[in-house]
Design brief:
Two copies of one chain form a homodimer. Chain A has 373 residues and is α/β, with parallel strands linked by helices. Chain A is 41% helix and 22% strand. The two termini of chain A are 39 Å apart. At the A-B interface, helix 8, helix 9, helix 10 and helix 14 of A face helix 8, helix 9, helix 10 and helix 14 of B. Chains A, B: Pfam families: ApbA, ApbA_C.
Amino acid sequence: MTIIQQTKPNALIIGTGGVGVIAAYSLSFQNKCNVSAVVRSDYDYLTNSSGYNITSCDYGKVENWKPDNIYSSVEKASEAGIFFDYIAVTTKNIPDGPTPLDKIVEPIINSNIINWDHDLDRSTNIVLIQNGIDIEHQLDKFSIDRNTREKPSVCCISGVQLICSTRVGKCLIDHKSKDNIIIGPFDPKDKLANEKSHEFIDLYFNEGHNMAEFDKDVRYTRWRKLIYNATINPLTALAELDYSRCYEFGDKEKRSDSGYYSSTEQKILRPAMAEVMCIAKSEGYELQQSDIEFFLNETKYICYKPSMCVDAENNQLTELVVLLGNPLKIAKKNGVYTPLLEMLYNLMVIKQNTIKERRGLIKFDEKTCKVIA
Amino acid sequence: MTIIQQTKPNALIIGTGGVGVIAAYSLSFQNKCNVSAVVRSDYDYLTNSSGYNITSCDYGKVENWKPDNIYSSVEKASEAGIFFDYIAVTTKNIPDGPTPLDKIVEPIINSNIINWDHDLDRSTNIVLIQNGIDIEHQLDKFSIDRNTREKPSVCCISGVQLICSTRVGKCLIDHKSKDNIIIGPFDPKDKLANEKSHEFIDLYFNEGHNMAEFDKDVRYTRWRKLIYNATINPLTALAELDYSRCYEFGDKEKRSDSGYYSSTEQKILRPAMAEVMCIAKSEGYELQQSDIEFFLNETKYICYKPSMCVDAENNQLTELVVLLGNPLKIAKKNGVYTPLLEMLYNLMVIKQNTIKERRGLIKFDEKTCKVIA
């Protein structure tokens, strides 16, 4: 393999949907790093066309843009002879699916280690621009021997993003709300990850365009987002219905003012959100009642379908494990009582396996009525 | 209207699916009563053909059978000039649908009262061959002035049926498991209903063929059936999945023997069934743990879709109110804690309204995100 020496750091984006393409473009904007991308469904189209066409609230109309390098798979990227300093993962995080996170990044980590095996000043910095809690532990096996420093380190950086950006056609991106990303080490005590988080922000932040802020304790922000993602997300996925309808289709009870209570809010979402707060609290993270009000109302009147609902409707596996399964593991460990979240989870487990059956990932024998592996 | 005088009692069957046709045939078998039927989807076919063809485990092959009278609607039946002594209702019981029980039977009750207004020896005896609890109260308004005895009484009889009989084509009935019906007054203290229950059994029971037993306290049997109908029914409807898959698709946890626990059973169904037992107990009905085991296992390995699941899949309104809503009203009144049943109910309320929207029974305005009446 020809090893390409470069002076600028190399960033690889894995996952080029609406979020990934904006991330790639943001990193390339000031030309401070080389940007590569693993492109799946758009690969053939992209290589044979002049590039992405992006309508962006942050960058205006961007026509015919391409990353510096394009690969059809992580394996191909790992064979390119490039040390990828930053791997930004923007795929969905589905540990129970056929390509869990560790399998996705492993080829790149291995090629970094093999080809630069004694370049101990370099590290493979994996930026997980994904939702959910405890997602970084899927990469623990890569950092076990970090302190021995016999090969380039692997370090884990958290990215929590507020953005509305959608792939609306082949290489066609519609980016509607300001990219606002919060970056920081998963482990606040991890010096290297702290340092690399700041370096990544320097590459990503484009003044006057997007927002990229450092956060020394990202877990708080992750818990806060779970108020929405562990409750409204699975509810809408179970109902296969936008949140507005889920709300309006509840039993209604008149309030003392002219309004009414919906059972969806009063009997499912509020108590389930309170359970999320209790789990976070059991870890020392104090979420606010105002967060519940914010997430209850943010998308109530816009017929919005959260990602888990869209996935369920499209027979795609959902992020059930990281959005709801992992919080419940913490609840169990800490003795937090979470009957509603557990019910949502146990119902969603059935739905997730229904999707797995439809995708041929599991088989159900109707004669014995058993799942056959 | 010509008033037809008859010496035998008249029975009218409303609802001629698999269950209703067998009921009609059973009543006609010994020719002890005249049997009329309100036939909806099969009406044209039935009037232009030689009759029903029934393959029955109780009666063998029955070819070209017709009830004595056939009507296309209850209104038509009410104009026939017949006093219907027994109205056997075998439709689904959906109080929140367009044709609730009181509307279904009202034309017949009115015609009985108007045309025989001083025949105080006769009574309109309504036999509800339907599942659920507190269904008889939908008819309370008809029996308010029963004690004044100024017009023929209305009395309410409960029928709880164990049967497997399906309409498999136009006027084609496949009756697979022995008809076993338990008959009794909804109110054990109601002397007239007691007496009329026995009379109905005399008409319905055909020795050597079917089973028809008197039960002086039908509520126990209704509660017992709710162990299944308030839990497995809504679960499978929410998942739109047969019970076997719902069971097998749960998270599995190894047991000390070679088997495993399914989260569907351990975390949803067993606790929800225990809640049904607690509600029944709060009314003085002592269900047994063995009932739970029976219902958990009865249909576990036959890929069976309960009625609520079939209804949801076919965009038909489900019996949510009588199978789950009414039990929860009793729980609330008696202070019984039922978090899992409530969650199943509140999720099913969303599903029921989704079905209503699809059937045009409610309208949702996507601009305002409100249900418009």
